Amino acid sequence: MRAQFVLSEIGVGLRRNLTMTFAVVVSVALSLALFGGSLLMSDQVSTMKGYWYDKVNVSIFLCNKSDAESDPHCAKGAVTAEQKDQILGDLKKMSVVERVSYESSDQAYKHYKEQFGDSPLASSLTPDQMQESYRIKLKDPQKYQVIATAFDGRDGVQSVQDQKGILDNLFGLLNGMNWAARAVMAMMLVVALMLIVNTVRVSAFSRRRETGIMRLVGASGFYIQAPFIMEAAVAGLIGGGVACGFLLVARYFIIDHGLALSQKLNLINFIGWDAVLTKLPLILATSLLMPALAAFFALRKYLKV
């Protein structure tokens, strides 16, 4: 097979169906950009989980005098020094506990003023209304229930709270958004495949005379099909290149510059360029193979060779 002939046929086919070729490029680009974006979103959620779950604490809030008057969990009165020592001793004996820190009511009041000093409620609070607490760093954040079972309802304990529950809600929302993006990506992928099949059909129909002559002179089936398959592959590869460009530009302007989220949201550990670059070969390979396979199976039905 002469490579020059195949390349010339590819150029002719792409020019003849320029509008449909453009539609294929756009649909492939959008679907693969969403595909790459969903992969990067999964990496981002995993990175954030590893970063934040490593920092979450379980807090054991102790009863104070105000709680003894209003909270049924503290009906036996404010926590005593003996009870605090007992709780601390039991915590240190537990194998799931990595570190325990104590926060006094004065420290809790100071932290509250730093975070919510502008709140109208802040001016009415006094240090003795704030709760003492133990902040527990677990070796495995999944073992929160061990702490809750051991200390929830104990004398002097007002409540046991796990920060991981708040993060789970956030990550659940992010995962939901990720699956929504994948659903849109799947629909765009179906549209792209339909456009590829229709483009191949139109191209094969417009050149039915040439393919008929080639069959008569003994050309092989693959020799006849190759230009059509490669047309679809080239159009898909262009779309894949555009999708890679979208991801690179999005990473540059959303995280590093433009919106500069990495500077504005210092508490979020964003994925690096390595995560983006490792996805590009997969996107390019998909953009090449997907249209080629779609064209191959379309030709088996619409081009009798």
Strands, helices and their partners?
Layout: H1 3-16, H2 18-53, E1 58-62, H3 65-70, H4 81-93, E2 97-103, H5 105-116, E3 133-138, H6 144-151, E4 157-162, H7 164-206, H8 208-216, H9 221-256, H10 261-264, H11 273-302
Antiparallel strand pairs: 1-3, 1-4, 2-3
What is the terminal separation in angstroms?
17 Å
Task: Name the quaternary structure.
Answer: single chain
Task: Let me know the number of strands.
Answer: 4
Tally of helical runs: 11
Order of helices and strands: HHEHHEHEHEHHHHH
Helix content: 55-70%
Q: Which blocks of ≥5 consecutive residues have pLDDT under 50? A: none
- Based on helices, strands and strand pairing, what is the structural class? alpha+beta
Task: Report the C-alpha radius of gyration, rounded.
Answer: 31 Å
Mean pLDDT: 80
Q: DSSP strand (E) fraction?
A: 5-15%
Q: Describe the biggest sheet? A: 4 strands, antiparallel
Tell me the overall shape. Answer: rod-shaped
Q: How are the strands ordered across the major sheet?
A: 2-3-1-4
Q: TL;DR?
A:
The chain is α+β, with helices and mostly antiparallel strands and 305 residues long.
Please give a structural write-up.
It contains 11 helices and 4 strands, in the order ααβααβαβαβααααα. With 305 residues, the chain is an alpha+beta fold. It has a 4-stranded antiparallel β-sheet with strand order 2-3-1-4. Helix 2 packs across helix 9, helix 2 (18-53) runs antiparallel to helix 11 and helix 7 (164-206) runs antiparallel to helix 9 (221-256). The longest helix has 43 residues, at 164-206.
